[in-house]
Design goal:
The complex is a heterodimer of chains A (436) and B (245). With 436 residues, chain A is α+β, with helices and mostly antiparallel strands. Chain A contains 13 helices and 21 strands. Chain A folds into 2 domains: 113 residues, Uridine Diphospho-n-acetylenolpyruvylglucosamine Reductase, domain 3 (2-Layer Sandwich), CATH 3.30.465.10; 212 residues, Vanillyl-alcohol Oxidase, Chain A, domain 3 (3-Layer(aba) Sandwich), CATH 3.40.462. Chain A is 27% helix and 26% strand. In chain A, strand 1 and strand 2 form a beta hairpin. In chain A, helix 5 crosses helix 12 and helix 9 packs antiparallel against helix 10. The radius of gyration of chain A is 21 Å and the shape is globular. The two termini of chain A are 37 Å apart. Chain B is α/β, with parallel strands linked by helices. Chain B has one domain: Rossmann fold, CATH 3.40.50.720. In chain B, strands 3-2-1-4-5-6-7 form a 7-stranded parallel beta sheet, with helices on both faces. Chain B is globular, with a radius of gyration of 18 Å. Chain B starts with a strand and ends in a 5-residue tail after the last helix. The chains are: A alpha+beta (436), B alpha/beta (245). At the A-B interface, helix 1 and strand 5 of A face helix 2 of B.
């Protein structure tokens, strides 16, 4: 059977959808589907909100189309099917001295998803976004495969990268892998006492990979305390990462109550010695620390959770500081909070990155958290920043459109390839991105 | 010593996973099936993962002429030669009842086609005195059930054939393993309701490879199907004929 009607959700498990899903395993099967019933493509559904949902409509699950179609070990040029997962690419190519050029926080994300969200990683300040390393994209159109390059199809190429899947299913992509010394990471961890020191350290960091964990429950003098991680790839012999564990049940609400989170965060912060330390880690442990625990989203219980992620320009750092103050004061944050400096690199009209600072914080799905996130969105607009649509589940149409100045260029290109709106998803409907 | 796997039915979901696993550890693969475009994608994938040789070749269970070409291709491959058979087709019982002429094709795909090929290649493996033959059957072959008995009968025939082949080749240093998977999450089962103990193809493939390495004779995968089928096989026919399972 081609279609299976099922319930599904995004990573945050707040929004759900019901509808028929197809899961083609071959290019020929995908071509037949798109010809008859064009529908938006979906990967591993690691988007938190509703970008990966189409309630009441069809979707094409691309996860079984995940093969390497060509690899040049001399140049590192890779042609790969869109359903391939970034973590799998890392596993295959790191021992051969090549890394995916950009890796998001989860290795379960697919190549197609990484393009559609123009994802960034811990090397964004140097390497830019994922889409900047993509040289060619093959879309499956109702008339068959269509190959896009940035030279020949500039506008459609820029509408596809970061384009939320609105130009149609991506079958495969060519991209330039990054040379690496080996498959271990040499990581320097430093305790950071407060906000100003954190920004100064992020600004001064010359490491290839940099990320800050931030204690979003600390306030007063300790506001913005955290751990700065700076890392380089290296060669060496250490045991590979242990196999993943599962979260077997939805956790009760108490698991992430304010006192538990505060205690956890304080202990996590003290884990790193006063003077810092340098450790050697398996490569996937560094890039995908949470992937070791499968289904960790179940820790938030049945009601799910939100991640708020925004980026603000460098000169608006103070605005970000007051956002963090508000978060710390609310007592609603979970242990998962990240602060990073971003470079200017972005490859699509609707790409998230801008030069500045990005803050990401998880919240259990409660009314108070939803209200807080609404306030944070407003603060982001005022600061001249933007929220990340891969994470968003709550924003309104007006908020978002103003954040993405190339919106009309994107819409024009999308309308030219999908005038009938076959690829509209729940996110696009909620934000009314295709209705004007 | 280098090992090459001839993978029959290489476009099947489980075969793909199996080809990846053996490529990861440095074995070569000769992918045989009908959809050459699809197999070419699997071949490049296997090569990237570490297979020293990853080639495609046409195979059609219903066309014995394709068998000879594969035999010819394998004759100059050095090292250990092994065969894994993932060929099969599963029309619904309703479709078979409506058109009995489909029975012949079903039996050819699941039993006589692969059996003919294995009988042809057996002397080659026998002469080399090494290698493994993996034949993928099904738990459906253990008992004739109301919902699936033509497919089951074909698989049962294949099981018995493999048992005899094991008897013949075992004494010549060639191991034959019968695999009986339960329901697997593949394109074939996508959209079917309420499948019990549904397993991922990666799990089935890794069970098969481990079983082959340990020279198991018959492998139920996932393991839960061994106790389940043991019970089902023990039900007296007088009672079984009244059941809907």
């Amino acid at each position: 059977m081609t279609w299976k009607t099922t319930d599904y959700s995004g990573w945050g498990r707040v929004h759900t959808a019901n509808g028929p899903l197809a899961r083609p395993e071959r290019a020929a099967a995908l071509a037949a589907l798109v010809e008859k019933t064009p529908a938006p493509a979906v990967g591993m559904r690691r988007s938190y909100g509703d970008a990966c949902l189409n309630d009441g409509g069809r979707m094409i699950d691309m996860t079984r189309m995940d093969r390497v179609l060509d690899f040049d070990p001399e140049t590192g040029e890779l042609h790969i099917e869109a359903g391939a997962q970034i973590g799998q690419m890392l596993k295959i190519f790191a021992p051969k001295g090549w890394l995916p050029p950009v890796m998001p926080g989860t290795g379960f994300a697919t190549v197609g998803g990484a393009i559609a969200m123009d994802v960034h990683g811990k090397n964004h300040h140097g390497a830019g976004s994922f889409g900047m390393h993509v040289t060619e994209i093959t879309l499956m159109t109702p008339k068959g495969p269509k190959v896009l390059t940035s030279q020949k199809n500039a506008s459609l190429f820029k509408a596809t990268i970061g384009g939320l899947g609105q130009t149609g299913p991506i079958v495969s992509a060519r991209l330039q892998m990054l040379r690496a010394k080996g498959d271990v990471m040499i990581v320097t961890e430093r305790r950071v006492e407060a906000w100003d020191e954190f920004l100064a350290l992020l600004d001064a960091s010359e490491a290839t990979y940099t990320v800050g964990w931030i204690d979003a429950t600390a306030h007063g003098d300790q506001l913005g305390r955290g751990i700065l991680e700076e890392a380089e790839t290296g060669a060496g012999l250490i045991p590979p990462a242990k196999r993943g564990k599962r979260i077997p049940i939805d956790a009760p609400a108490i698991a992430l109550s304010p006192s538990v989170v505060r205690t956890f965060n304080a202990a996590y912060w003290r884990r790193v010695p006063d003077k810092g330390r340098t450790v050697v880690k398996p490569i996937d442990n560094f890039f995908f620390p949470l992937d070791k625990i499968h289904d960790w989203n179940r820790l938030y219980g049945k009601t799910g959770f939100h991640q708020f992620q925004c980026v603000v320009p460098i000169e608006a750092a103070d605005a970000l500081r007051s956002m963090l103050e508000r978060i710390a004061g609310s007592g609603l944050a979970s242990p998962l909070a990240v602060l990073k400096r971003m470079g200017p690199g972005r490859a699509g009209h609707m790409s998230f990155p801008m030069e500045g600072y990005t803050l990401a914080v998880d919240f259990p799905n409660r009314h108070a958290a939803q209200r807080l996130i609404g306030e944070l969105e407003t603060a982001t607009v005022q600061a001249g920043g933007r929220v990340y649509l891969a994470k968003d589940a709550l924003a309104g149409p007006e908020t978002v459109r103003g954040m993405y100045p190339e919106f009309s260029a994107w819409l024009k290109a999308v309308k030219s390839v999908d005038p009938d709106g076959h690829y509209i998803t729940d996110l696009v409907r909620r934000l009314e991105l295709r209705t004007i | 010593m280098s090992q090459t796997w001839i993978i029959l039915g290489a476009t099947s979901t489980i075969a793909r996973s199996f080809a990846r696993l053996v490529s990861d550890r440095g074995d070569s693969v000769l992918l045989a099936g009908r959809d050459m475009v699809d197999m070419q994608a699997t071949a490049t994938d296997c090569a990237a993962r570490g297979a020293p040789l990853a080639e495609t070749i046409a195979f059609d269970a219903r066309d014995a002429a394709s068998f000879a070409k594969i035999l010819k291709r394998t004759s100059d491959i050095e090292g250990t030669l092994s065969v894994a058979v993932f060929v099969g087709s599963m029309p619904t019982q309703d479709a078979l009842d409506a058109d009995p002429s489909l029975i012949l094709g079903t039996v050819t795909d699941n039993f006589t086609g692969p059996a003919e090929f294995l009988t042809m290649i057996a002397p080659l493996l026998e002469a080399r005195g090494s290698g493994t033959i993996v034949g993928v059957g099904s738990v459906a072959g253990d008992r004739g059930r109301i919902g699936n008995y033509v497919y089951g009968a074909a698989k049962a025939g294949f099981h018995t054939y493999l048992s005899g082949l094991r008897n013949r080749l075992g004494r010549k240093g060639v191991h034959v393993m019968t695999v009986k998977p339960g329901t697997v999450d593949t394109a074939m089962t996508w959209g079917m309701d309420k499948l019990p103990f549904l397993a991922q193809p990666e799990k089935i493939a890794s069970d098969i490879l481990r079983g082959a390495d340990r020279q198991k004779d018959t492998l139920y995968t996932p393991f839960i199907w061994w106790p389940v089928m043991t019970v089902i096989r023990l039900i007296p026919e007088r009672i079984f004929k009244k059941l809907q399972i």
